[in-house]
């Protein structure tokens, strides 16, 4: 495991994401590349969003949605900022905060590093290794890092780091950014830091895209100290979140929605266990799965993975390549968790593609 202070070696396309795997002919493919829960948004949420269209003549007013998100996490509204997806939050952090040595813990979602680099920062990397199960050792983060970014559970490794280990990264003068975009897919949201106010410099990002299937609507939020929220808000354009997205945010933190998300998290866990068990049956020499997986996706290593991915595509399945994530190479693939029938079809197809 190593750290480096380079802005990137050019070996990884930080702007490649799962949607690129299905962008052109996705209708002909079964999608295991994008980490949005299948079958979403649910009908009741679509109806709520559709009803909001009657109010499009007015400028967006985010106060009710902000208060609802704050209440969901037991926080005052001044600790919440609504954003056009978590991706906007990374850009705001990169542009608004005055930092000297930002560090990103990889492998993880690449937009934080891309946003920091675009804002002119030199970005240090902490690369976690498969031999360690891609688990965090806080001692690897440089003491002089004044911005640290980590995902939990981490995309693409599906590792859920202990909240205590992440919180131990907090230091005076350091901003600790935890991307919890997939935390609501973890039963009981174990190891969540959202809602904590006792960790200095803590910034938590949440997305409503994944569990609720709202990638096209762009809605997420930031939880942080009032001072940090004010800095980020000053960097936002006016009315950054649309009225339909604000209505969706409010709906997705309602008691009904939280109960549905909790049920979905348990279903994802069961479907993921079925997927992992099937991958193990392909043989110990054929596939290595990063375990225990805790997100709505799994990361696996297999020989000739790039060729297997192309073969899978020709057989009707899209999966996410791993070589665009720092710390991984073309022998890695990420698979979104799907229902058992889809998983069974995929496993049969993967067996064919590997031969």
Automatic annotation (TrEMBL):
Enzyme Commission designation: 2.6.1.-
InterPro entries named in the record: Aminotransferase_I/II_large, NHTrfase_class1_PyrdxlP-BS, PyrdxlP-dep_Trfase, PyrdxlP-dep_Trfase_major, PyrdxlP-dep_Trfase_small
Gene3D superfamilies associated with the record: Aspartate Aminotransferase, domain 1, Type I PLP-dependent aspartate aminotransferase-like (Major domain)
Residue span(s) of domain Aminotransferase class I/classII large: 31-350
Names of the cofactor(s): pyridoxal 5'-phosphate
Key words of the record: Aminotransferase, Lyase, Pyridoxal phosphate, Transferase
Pfam families associated with the record: Aminotran_1_2
CDD domains recorded: AAT_like
GO MF, one annotated term: threonine-phosphate decarboxylase activity
NCBIfam families (alphabetical): PRK07908.1 (NF005915)
Protein family: Belongs to the class-I pyridoxal-phosphate-dependent aminotransferase family.
Name the record gives this protein: Aminotransferase
Organism: Streptomyces caeni
């Amino acid at each position: 495991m190593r750290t480096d202070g380079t802005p990137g070696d050019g070996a990884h396309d930080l702007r490649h994401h799962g949607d690129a795997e299905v962008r052109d002919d996705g209708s002909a493919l079964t999608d295991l590349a994008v980490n949005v829960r299948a079958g979403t948004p649910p009908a009741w949420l679509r109806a709520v969003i559709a009803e909001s269209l009657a109010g499009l003549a007015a400028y967006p007013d985010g106060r009710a949605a902000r208060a609802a998100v704050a209440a969901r996490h037991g926080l005052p509204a001044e600790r919440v900022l609504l954003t056009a997806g978590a991706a906007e939050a990374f850009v705001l952090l990169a542009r608004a905060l005055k930092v000297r040595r930002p560090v990103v813990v990889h492998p993880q979602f690449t937009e934080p590093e891309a946003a920091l680099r675009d804002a002119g920062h030199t970005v240090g990397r902490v690369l976690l290794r498969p031999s360690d199960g891609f688990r965090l050792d806080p001692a690897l983060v440089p003491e002089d890092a004044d911005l640290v970014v980590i995902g939990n559970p981490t995309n693409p490794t599906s590792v859920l780091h202990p909240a205590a280990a992440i919180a131990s990264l907090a230091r005076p003068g350091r901003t600790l950014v935890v991307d919890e975009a997939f935390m609501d897919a973890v039963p009981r949201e174990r190891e969540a830091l959202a809602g904590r106010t006792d960790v200095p410099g803590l910034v938590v990002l949440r997305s409503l895209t994944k569990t609720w299937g709202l990638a096209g609507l762009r809605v997420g939020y930031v939880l942080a100290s009032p001072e940090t929220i004010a800095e980020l808000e000053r960097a936002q354009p006016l009315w950054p979140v649309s009225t339909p997205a604000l209505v969706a945010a409010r709906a997705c933190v309602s008691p009904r929605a939280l109960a549905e998300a909790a049920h979905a998290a348990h279903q994802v866990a069961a479907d993921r266990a079925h997927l992992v068990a099937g991958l193990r049956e392909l043989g110990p020499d054929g596939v290595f799965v990063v375990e225990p997986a805790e997100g709505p996706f799994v990361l696996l290593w297999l020989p000739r993975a790039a060729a297997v991915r192309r073969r899978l595509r020709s057989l009707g399945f899209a999966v996410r390549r791993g070589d665009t994530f720092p710390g991984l190479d073309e022998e890695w693939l990420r698979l979104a968790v799907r229902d058992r029938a889809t998983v069974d079809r995929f496993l049969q197809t993967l067996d064919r593609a590997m031969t």
